[in-house]
Amino acid sequence: MKISTKGRYAIRLMLDIAQNSNGGNVSIKDVAQRQDISLKYLEQIVNMLSKAGFLHSQRGSQGGYRLTRPPGEYTVGDILRVTEGELAPVACLADEPNKCPKAASCPTVRFWTGLYDVVSNYLDGTTLNDLIEEPAESNENFCCYI
């Protein structure tokens, strides 16, 4: 599974808003500057997240965006499902229950199910709060362009 730029930027956007809102709205222009992401691209992502109910927008001089819930209530999995769609590693696992006519006899379905469970549990077990509170030095093995 490869997470697209849209998914990675959505996480950065949500983190930026969580860290910089201070109870108010955050300008998408400011996020674009801080994160070095195209404003037009961020507007597309904001639109997706707003439609999903993750962000609230307000127009005017004090306008901008804010989270609709506390950061601890957003999982990375939730955010990625909005931007990436289904996260199943193989198409047959995207349907519940598995509609593949060979599922009962497929020698690999347990492997793919196990992988899907591990990935889903990790993504759904990590919240925006977890990413905010994790010390920067513990991230030295990760790409700085999440």
Helix count, DSSP H or I runs of 4 or more residues: 6
* Element-level helix/strand string: HHHEEHHH
User: Helicity level, as a percent range?
Assistant: 40-55%
The portion of residues forming beta strands comes to 5-15%
- State the shape: elongated
Average predicted confidence as pLDDT: 89
Strand order of the largest sheet: 1-2
What profile does the largest beta sheet have? 2 strands, antiparallel
End-to-end C-alpha gap:
15 Å
Overall number of strands: 2
Provide the gyration radius in Å.
17 Å
Structure classification? mainly alpha
Short description:
With 146 residues, the chain is mainly alpha-helical. The chain contains 6 helices and 2 strands, in the order H-H-H-E-E-H-H-H.
Structure description:
Helix 1 (5-20) crosses helix 3, helix 1 (5-20) packs across helix 4 and helix 2 (28-35) packs across helix 3. The chain is mainly α and 146 residues long. It is built from six helices and two strands, in the order αααββααα. The mean pLDDT is 89.
